[in-house]
Design a protein that fits this description.
Pfam families: Fer4_21 (PF14697). This protein is of the alpha+beta class and about 130 residues long. About 25% of the residues lie in helices and about 30% in strands. The chain has 2 domains: about 70 residues, Alpha-Beta Plaits; about 55 residues, Alpha-Beta Plaits. The protein has 4 helices and 8 strands, in the order E-H-E-E-H-E-E-H-E-E-H-E. The protein starts with a strand and ends with a strand.
Length: about 130
């Protein structure tokens, strides 16, 4: 089982070893997908690998340590009807979440998306949109 989350820490509460400590305590694996650090906070998107009980424990410990945790569902919308298969999004996607099918139509794998927003910002026909926050 895997669960995608977004966790935000005020910088005074976050240290680099924190996630490693929580993985050891909860018996899970956490794969960091994206990290954003500003002067006031650290925001980490990642995927918890483990059973439901261990994933829940991982999130509870994050909260006790000062993190604001949000489970992520599908955050992007791809409108195939609007898409003109220009390839702009395919060429810009750093994780290959957007690829061509054999018939040169575009397919979007939301599980690989790291929310870099390159596709949203550059799609000439607005076929990709962000649903989050």
């Amino acid at each position: 089982m895997s669960k995608r989350i977004l966790v935000m820490f005020p910088n005074r509460e976050y240290k680099e070893s924190l996630l490693h400590e929580i993985m050891l305590k909860s018996g899970t694996i956490f794969n960091t997908i994206n990290t954003e650090v500003t002067p006031t906070h650290t925001k980490i998107m990642g995927e918890i690998k483990g059973d439901e009980e261990k994933a829940g424990e991982f999130m509870r410990i994050l909260k006790r340590r000062g993190g604001i945790v949000r489970e992520l569902d599908v955050m992007m919308k791809f409108d195939q009807a609007k898409c003109v298969s220009c390839g702009m999004c395919v060429s810009l996607c750093p994780t290959k979440a957007i690829l061509y099918n054999k018939d040169f139509s575009v397919k979007f794998d939301f599980n690989e998306c790291i929310l870099c927003m390159r596709c949203v910002e550059n799609c000439p026909v607005n076929a990709v949109s962000y649903l989050g926050d």
